[in-house]
Amino acid sequence: MFDSCRGHKNGKILFMNKGEDFTGITIVFFCHDGDGKVLMSKRSINCRDEHGCWDIGGGGLEHYDSIENTLRKEIKEEYCVDVVDYEFLGYREVHRESGDKKSHWIALDFKVLVNPEGADNGEPHKFEAVDWFNMDTLPNPKHSQLPTFLDKYADKLR
Question: What is the per-residue pLDDT for 17?
Fold first, then answer.
């Protein structure tokens, strides 16, 4: 999927990046098996930032795509599993800085039940590893936004 869009100005092609040049919308998913395990991925050097950090998953909402379709599509792409059921948890306004780049995202957060059979690394170019963890033993280092997510929805994630 594309992280940028194109436009024209004075005959030149302009590229704009979601979250950097305009507010991006991301669909964040906390995939679980219904028995206390959480599916997470470890970000590789090919990710935009936070290399080596463990994260729960997410993807940008594309123009004209639905939120539900994006949720299902991104989970299938990243983890090779289908959504069994999901619950909208809420939203977060995310402001981040990475080096000299600032970004602004609206995160739509979901708790998603998936069938653990067949879960795999669907994007090995982006993820060093994909694995299941107990809520009490989540791996480190964690993505910078994960503690905020876990704190905000603690009562809904157990």
Answer: 81
Domain boundaries, the chain: 25-153
pTM: 0.87
Backbone angle region of 80, left / alpha / beta, with phi > 0 → left and psi within -120 to 50 → alpha = left
Q: Where are the alpha helices (DSSP H) in the chain?
A: 67-79, 146-152, 154-157
The CA–CA distances, whole Å, from 62 to 32, 56, 59, 151 equal 25, 20, 9, 28
Cα–Cα distance, 13 to 6 (Å, whole number):
7
Question: If you average pLDDT over every residue of the chain, what do you get?
Answer: 91
- Residue 54 in tokens: 């463990």
Is CATH 3.90.79.10 the right assignment for the domain spanning 25-153? yes
